[in-house]
C-alpha cells in the first residue's frame, strides 16, 4: 500500500479499506473466532455468558472491559492440558488483578510477574509464592528483597549487577534464591519492533553470541546464595510462526549443553517464554495450545537428542493467548461524521466514549482491531468505518478499519473483541479520563473485579 505524505492513516481508498478487510455479507453477524466462547448475538444484541451488552452498559457504564471468566479459565486450562509435563506461567503483564490471579491459581498454572506492583497483586490474591516467577531487566533491591522474603519460586536474572545484588540479599536474609538466566538468542521475531525481544540490539537478556550468557551462568554458579535452575528465552509477542521459537530453542539448548560441559552444572529447566499470537481480525490465524505443544516439544526433543543431553523441564509464559480473547470492550457511540477523502471517497468516523486511554495498542503498535454493533439489529448496508475515541489527539483510533452498518448512531453500543491483554494493563488517565472498570461474567452473573476510577480517584494525587 502506498502511504500518503500525511502518513499511513491518510488518503487510503475510503470506500474499500485495507486489502485484508472483506466486505461482510451481513455486518450484524459475529466473526465467531474473534470472540470469547461465551459470546453470542441474537436479534443484533450481543451477550456473554447470558448477560446482554445493554444490561452490562446499564449496570456498569461504558467504556467497560467485559471478561468472559470461563473463556479465560478455559484458555489457561488448555495450555496446562496441552503441556502436561511443562510448567505454564501466566504472564501477568497481559492483565493482572486479584480475580485473574485467583483464576490462574485455581486452574493450576504458575504466574510470571515483572514488577513489585504485579508481585503485590499476586500476594494480595494469596497466589502460592513458590509458583511465582519474577522477571525484569532492572529490578530494584527492594523488589528483589520482597520477592525473597515472600518466597517466590524463581527469579529470572537479567544483568550482572542483579546477580551480585541478589547474592548479597540472600546472605542478608539467610535464604537461597532459585535463579534462571535470561538469554538473547539473536532471533528477529516477525512482529512489531517494540514487542520483539530477542534480536541483539535491545535491553533484555544476556547475549549467547558474545559469550555474555555463559559468563552470567558462571557468575550465578559461583554465587553461594544462588541456585542455577536453567536458561530463559522470550523472543517477542504476537508471534504466529514457530520458526522463531525453533531457532531460539536450538541456540538456547546449545548453550544449555555448553553450560553442562564447561561449568559442570545442568539446568533442570528451560523456559521458552510467551508470545503466542491471537486473532484480532480476520488477518490473524493463531495456533491452538495443542498445535504449539506438538511443534515446540518436537523441536526441544530433537535438539536435545542431537546434542545428546537430557530434555530439561520446559516452561512457557503465555499472557496474551490466555487473557486477550477472553475480553471485549463495550463502548457507547456519541457522534458520527462522514469525512471526504481524495478522489471523492469518504470515510465514516464513529466516535465512542473511550479510546487511547483504554486501548493504546492501535496508537502504539498500529494494531488492528475489529468491532460489532452490540445493542440492536440494523439491516443497514455495511459502510467502511473508523472507530475513534474521545481524546484530544488525531491518532486516538480504536478500530482503524471495519465495516459497520451505515446507520450506526449516537446511543448505540459497539463491542471490540480481543481486548483482554495489554489494554487495561496499559491504560492511562490521558486527558484526565478515569480508567474503565473490568467486569467478569460467568453463568449469567456479572461482577466488578476492577472498579471504574472516579473523579475523586483522579484528584486524589493532586495536592494543589
Ligand atoms: N514472558 C516474558 C519474559 C515477556 O516479556 C512477555 C511479554 C511474556 C512472557 C508474555 O508475552 P505474550 O504471551 O503476552 O505475548 N504491550 C505489548 C506486548 C508486550 C509484551 C511484553 N512481554 C502489546 O500490547 O502487544
What is the topological layout?
Blueprint: E1 39-42, E2 45-48, E3 51-52, H1 53-60, E4 64-68, H2 69-82, E5 87-91, H3 98-106, E6 110-113, H4 116-124, E7 132-134, H5 141-150, E8 154-157, H6 160-173, E9 177-184, E10 206-207, H7 212-221, E11 226-232, H8 243-263, E12 269-271, H9 289-307, E13 313-316, H10 320-323, E14 327-340, E15 346-352, H11 361-365, E16 372-373, E17 382-388, E18 397-405, E19 413-417, E20 437-442, E21 445-450, H12 455-459
Parallel strand pairs: 4-20, 5-6, 5-13, 6-7, 7-8, 8-9, 9-10, 9-11, 11-12, 12-13, 15-17
Antiparallel strand pairs: 1-2, 2-3, 4-14, 14-15, 14-19, 16-19, 17-18, 20-21
The structure holds ligand LLP.
Ligand LLP binds at residues 91, 93-94, 112, 135, 195, 234, 237-238, 273-276, 317-321, 361, 365, 421-422.
Beta fraction: 15-25%
Distance between the termini: 50 Å
Q: Which small molecules are bound?
A: ligand LLP
CATH architecture descriptor text of the largest domain: Beta Barrel
Taken from the alpha-carbon principal axes, the silhouette is: globular
State the helical fraction: 25-40%
> What's the pLDDT, averaged over the residues?
94
- If you compute it from the alpha carbons, what radius of gyration comes out, rounded to the nearest whole angstrom? 23 Å
Unreliable sequence segments? 1-13
Number of helices: 12
Tell me about the largest β-sheet. 9 strands, mixed
| Count of distinct strands | 21
- Going by helix content, strand content and strand pairing, the class is alpha/beta
Tally of domains: 2
CATH topology (fold) name of the largest domain: Lyase, Ornithine Decarboxylase, Chain A, domain 1
CATH class of the largest domain: Mainly Beta
Q: In the CATH hierarchy, what is the superfamily of the largest domain?
A: Lyase, Ornithine Decarboxylase, Chain A, domain 1
